[in-house]
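Thread amino acids onto this structure.
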């Protein structure tokens, strides 16, 4: 009986010790979600989240959880970080703007950072008025025979700019008998269209009809 009591007491002590270790680790991590607020993960050959909005002055850290090498490369040469397996790269976005990035070895891995002025952020978060859903300009990538993102929302009078990152030519052309179109875009070319009426505009690539997207104008 004494031996059983001793074993139970020892087991209870081990459980308490384990719980203490878990709680300490949770406190060091800053709580759920807190350490991930400006973290982008490269995993399964995709960036997650791929599209973020942050106030100016924010440092974003990319972490590679894959077993292969990735990069975080700006399309305008602003940064080019190498992500070794389990490695990381950080960059501070000082100026408002929209910053597209991709992985050089895996060019279907793309993302975008929208940076707004600090006075447009509330408590460190980007206000709805300055987020991608209401900004007057939205970028869409033509990449890997896809429009990325395929569905976007913008306010009346806003512009959508399509950029072709593929080697093949593409178009962005409205379904309704070509009411509007970017025309044929070769690799590296861009074209913008302004939307002056509210509604939902479905579009496709005339050269590759399986590429489809939509613009919702509010």
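Threaded sequence (218 positions):
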């Amino acid at each position: 009986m004494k031996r059983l009591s001793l074993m139970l007491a020892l087991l209870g002590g081990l459980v308490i010790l384990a719980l203490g270790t878990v709680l300490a680790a949770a406190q060091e991590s800053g709580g759920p979600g807190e350490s991930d607020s400006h973290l982008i993960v490269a995993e399964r050959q995709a960036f997650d989240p791929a599209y973020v909005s942050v106030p100016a002055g924010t440092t974003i850290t990319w972490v590679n959880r894959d077993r292969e090498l990735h990069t975080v490369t700006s399309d305008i040469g602003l940064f080019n970080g190498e992500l070794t397996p389990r490695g990381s790269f950080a960059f501070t976005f000082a100026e408002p703007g929209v910053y597209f990035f991709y992985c050089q070895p895996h060019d279907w891995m793309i993302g975008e950072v929208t940076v707004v002025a600090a006075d447009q952020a509330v408590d460190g978060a980007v206000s709805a008025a300055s987020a991608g859903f209401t900004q007057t300009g939205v970028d869409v990538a033509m990449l890997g025979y896809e429009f990325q993102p395929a569905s976007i929302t913008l306010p009346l009078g806003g512009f959508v700019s399509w950029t072709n990152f593929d080697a093949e030519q593409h178009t962005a052309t409205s379904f309704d008998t070509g009411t509007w179109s970017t025309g044929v875009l070769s690799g590296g070319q861009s074209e913008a269209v302004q939307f002056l009426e509210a509604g939902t505009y479905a579009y496709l690539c005339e050269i590759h009809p399986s590429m489809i997207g939509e613009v919702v104008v509010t």
